[in-house]
Amino acid sequence: MSRVIEITRRDARKLALSAQQLPRSTFARGLAGTREAIQYLGYVQIDTISVVERAHHHTLWNRVPHYRRHYLDRLVRERTIFEYWSHAAAYLSMHDYRFCLPRMRAIAAGQRHWYRKNQKLMDDVLARIRAEGPLQAGDFEAHKGHAGGMWDWGPVKQAIESLFMEGELLVTRRDNFAKVFDLAERVLPAGIDTSVPTAGEYAHYLIDGYLRAHGIGRETEFGYLRRGVRAAVKDALAERVENGAVLPMVIRGSRERYYASADFERILERRLARGTVRILSPFDNLVIQRKRIRDLFGFDYQVECYVPEPHRKFGYFCLPVLWQGKLVARMDCKAERKSGFFTVRALVLEPHVRRFDEFAQRLSGELRRFAKFNECDEIGVQRVAPAEFKTPLTRSLA
Hints:
The chain is of the alpha+beta class. The chain has 3 domains: 5-96 and 194-268, no CATH class; 112-187, Arc Repressor Mutant, subunit A (Orthogonal Bundle), CATH 1.10.10.10; 302-397. It is 38% helix and 19% strand. The protein contains 15 helices and 14 strands. It has helices at residues 9-19, 30-41, 55-61, 70-77, 101-108, 119-132, 153-166, 184-187, 199-214, 219-222, 230-242, 264-268, 290-297, 356-373, 390-397; strands at residues 5-7, 44-45, 81-85, 89-93, 169-175, 178-183, 216-217, 246-251, 257-261, 278-279, 318-323, 326-336, 341-349, 378-385. Strands 10-11-12-13-14 form a 5-stranded mixed beta sheet, covered by helices on one side. Helix 1 crosses helix 9 (199-214). It starts with a strand and ends with a helix.
């Protein structure tokens, strides 16, 4: 049995940040870096909210030098990435396609995702796409019958999503962000491995991918929001520990068991660029597991777009802010792209932030960069807490 290594919480955070390539990354530039980042991270979550730039672009922009929005569409067309479900809708590397097959097969066998299946409608949708080629859900609208009929919008969309989750359909492209579906056999590149991994292979893939992208994790996190993998992950983890590829750890002051790759000391030797500020998406890979972020960073975070307005504390779409190896603030923003005006509607600092002048200078530079990414060239700041931080911030922005 491998000995249990004790590390500090600061080092645990450094492992997480270094593995996540934040605040500084080693990815290549441009298109090649985008492809590399998606494969390395395992997934990049897709989101429709556009009060600031959408989450998938925001996440990649923070890591890939000279990132451009059209890269994702190009990589989908080139068949090097594809859309499917990770813990949520996501872009994934085509190298990992076979590891989506267990979920696809389970849903095809009756496991429920969101909707109750209408097999007749699914067969009709599949037949039409097979005959006509790629279609959007909206292309079926013209075929509506009477209210509640076969081509009613809701049931058709549900049928398409069910076929997508079963792996019968894949997204071949997006037009104005609307998904265009085609038969999976016409989307998958020639020679792609479509063998279904064994339970053990899948578990090893989950563990190795998680530790590569997150640096340190608990057993329950390796199968995050995946059904039916707990026993296989437990066995695979024991095997990894036994052969020395994975090391058990505790964080000083905690009894919870964590795990890291055997080369964790090499990762800790990397320079973190702590002085750099990064404004993160609420769906960034670093922060998406809220309990993990609370335990490692002491940052109790919830995105409040799903919270009724009277109960919001920080704003509709508050963005976590990273500085000095910690999550130090929440910033609710809105990009008015037509007018070119970027508004910080609320900025709330964590209680431990003290060096106001230094943080204001660092944050203002990153805020200008973020506003430009959101196609804005003017910045306005409204509510700030504590209030005395507003003066150094606006001075630095000026």
